[in-house]
Automatic annotation (TrEMBL):
Name of the molecule in the record: NfeD-like C-terminal domain-containing protein
Occurrences of domain NfeD-like C-terminal (ranges): 86-143
Alphabetized UniProt keyword annotations: Membrane, Transmembrane, Transmembrane helix
SUPFAM superfamilies on file: NfeD domain-like
The UniProt record lists the keyword Transmembrane: yes
TM annotation in the entry: 7-26, 38-67
Signal peptide: none
Membrane-topology annotation of the record: Multi-pass membrane protein
Length: 144
């Protein structure tokens, strides 16, 4: 153990903390790994064991205290730009073939022709009517 410098052990610890980061996708392990790298720098600059441990603890706790709430806030936010099927919900479409509850009708939605059925199975929409897209079920627009 005396043959290998302390900074090498800190780097081994940082790599060891990086493995569960990749396996579990828990960012806290990455923050602990950065703390270990900071302790390796302190060891490389000649800091004692107490200083190395303090640097590890301070950097790790600071990262967890600052970065984790920011990451959690970003994780809970909905995307500002709806894409794919989500972008089509709430749009208006033009009936090209009679739409009823059977799903045999067609609408022009977003420049494309979609199969469509009415939300209320008893309601029918005739050619040329504007309808609102409520949902998308597979390749079928649910309209009302």
């Amino acid at each position: 153990m005396d043959d290998i410098n302390a900074w090498v052990w800190w780097l081994v610890g940082a790599a060891g903390l990086g493995i569960p980061l990749v396996v579990t996708a828990m960012p806290e392990f990455g923050m602990l790994s950065v703390g270990a790298v900071a302790a390796a720098v302190a060891a490389g600059l000649g800091g004692g064991v107490v200083l190395q441990v303090l640097v590890f603890v301070i950097v790790s706790v600071a990262l967890i205290a600052v970065v984790r709430p920011v990451a959690a806030r970003h994780r809970t936010q909905l995307p500002e730009l709806a894409t794919g099927i989500e972008a089509l919900k709430g749009k208006q479409a033009i009936v090209l073939e009679r739409v009823d509850g059977s799903g045999a009708g067609r609408v022009k939605l977003g420049g494309e022709i979609w199969s469509a059925r009415s939300l209320d199975g008893t309601q029918a929409y005739e050619v040329g009517q504007e309808v609102d897209v409520v949902d998308i079920d597979g390749a079928t627009a649910i309209v009302m």
